[in-house]
Amino acid sequence: MKLYRLIYSCATSAFAIAAGAQVPTYSIAMAVSEDFGIQGLNNQGDVLYQSSDGYHVLRSDGSSAVFGNTVSGGAFPFAVPTGISDSGVCYGLAFTPNQGDGTRAAVWTEQSGWQVMPIGPLKSQGVGVTATGRVLCRGSDTLFGEPLNSGWWQIGSNPVSIPGNSLAMGCNSVGDAVFTTFGGSWVTRANGTNQTLQWNGVISYASQISSNGLICGIVPRGFSGLPNVQGVVWNTDGTVSSSVALQAYGNFTDVNSSGLVIGNSRPSAASWDDAAILYSTQLGVIRLSSLMTPTFAGWKFSSANKINDRGQIVAVGTAPGSTETKYVLLNPVPEPATCASLGLGLIALLRRRRRSGE
Predict the structure, then answer these.
(1) pLDDT the model gives residue 33
(2) CA count, 13 A, side-chain hemisphere, 169
(3) Residue 310 in contact with residue 323, Cβ under 8 Å?
(4) Distance (Å, whole) CA 103 – CA 96
(5) pLDDT truncated to tens, each residue of the chain (358 aa)?
(6) Cα–Cα nearest to 67, from 83, 50, 87
(7) Largest CA distance in the chain
(8) Among residues 234, 246, 236, 242, which one has the least CA distance to residue 281?
(9) Can you say whether the dihedral through the CA atoms of 139, 217, 291, 302 is positive or negative?
(10) 3-class secondary structure for 209-262?
(11) Residues paired with 275 in a beta bridge
(12) In angstroms, rounded to a whole number, what is the distance separating the alpha carbons of residues 181 and 168?
């Protein structure tokens, strides 16, 4: 396995790209073989990835933790993480050597190790954790079937069911959570209110929610006669913030608090080459490959999976001239305005030094 840490220190700078600012550019901070992958990224800039010696949490403050997939005791002795919350809790699923026995939602912390949720359907997993430790879970009563999807909050050992035949998609730290059914999507806010998510009265499917409650999703092609997929962003009150026509096959996968959205847009089901996109109301739809700095020009990205409030992106792509697929962490390059302010700061410092030397 090859793991490249190129310039991760840049990821710790506390800035976020504001939607509506100039077109951002990106550099590659980390590249991991697709055999292992990058499983998670939170808004603090902590990265969850796998290598040959286990799972790693590389924190933005420079510290790190390594852990395995062994669960102490219980009927589900193995576990894998699929994401990391803003509080640093890794969530995912626990399983048995015989996959036919199903899975259970599980979480990992450096203090307690793996903990498996005490109940759940035959196939379930954790999809998010709030700042107070509530775990958002989803599952199905049939191992490979979709008709009996369910979503619930796990609060300690107590499950709190979500009304309806819902598939939990994700949540943020404050407890806003997005759910999807065959009949559409809705968000349950931390204050207990529910908001139906539609586009021009048409059924829509939400995929993820940001730290401040923005939501992204799609209206599938064919709905209401649409020839292509419609990407949609919803405001914190459930109204449509913006929408854009994607190609015949496309998706919005994640959104950050600035309204930057990632996803993919492709003309056919098999056309994944260079499909990853970045979108905002001001920028429109831009191929992620076109935003790379000259050092990383020529990279092509098939998908973009996660974006945080710092503007960092987890994507899947290939280097120019290579056929090896890698998971990559993309860091936004500081804007010229930021560089200008740094330059002014240096000038002021030099002036002070000159005066003190006179």
Answers:
(1) 95
(2) 23
(3) no
(4) 7
(5) 344 343 343 333 333 444 445 789 999 999 999 999 999 999 999 999 999 999 999 999 999 999 999 998 888 999 999 999 999 999 999 998 775 668 889 999 999 999 998 877 678 899 999 999 999 998 875 543 444 456 788 877 777 777 666 788 999 999 999 998 888 999 999 998 999 999 999 999 999 999 999 999 999 998 878 889 999 999 999 999 999 999 989 999 999 999 999 999 998 888 888 999 999 999 999 999 999 999 999 999 999 999 999 999 999 999 999 999 999 999 999 843 443 343 444 344 334 444 444 4
(6) 50
(7) 80
(8) 242
(9) positive
(10) ECCCCCEEEEECCCHHHCCCCEEEEECCCCCEEEEEECCCEEEEEEECCCCCEE
(11) none
(12) 9
Write the DSSP assignment of 12-52 as a string of letters: GS---PPTTSSPP-EEEEEEEETTT-EEEE-TT--EEEEET
How long, in residues, is the chain?
358
Helix, strand, coil shares of the chain as percentages rounded to 5? 10, 45, 40
Q: Is 150:166 a contact under the CB 8 Å cutoff? A: yes
CA 300 and chain centroid, separation: 19
Distance, in Å, from the CA atom of 141 to the CA atom of 302, rounded to the nearest integer, reads 32
And the tokens for 198?
A: 């539609």
Strand 230-234, strand 284-287: pairing: unpaired
**Measuring CA to CA, which residue among 267, 285, 268, 287 is closest to residue 276?**
287
C-alpha span between 318 and 291 (Å, rounded)? 15
Closest to 48 in 3D by CA, of 11, 10, 79, 89: 89
CB atoms within 10 A of CB 325: 15
The Cα-based distances of 137 to 71, 129, 294, 309 in angstroms read 19, 9, 42, 24
> Which position has the token pair 């539609």?
198
DSSP run (H or E) holding 86:
none
* Confidence at residue 149, expressed as pLDDT on a 0 to 100 scale: 54
- The rounded distance, in Å, linking the Cα atoms of 122 and 140 is 6
Q: How many CB atoms lie within 10 A of CB 334?
A: 17
Residue 342, SS3 per DSSP: helix
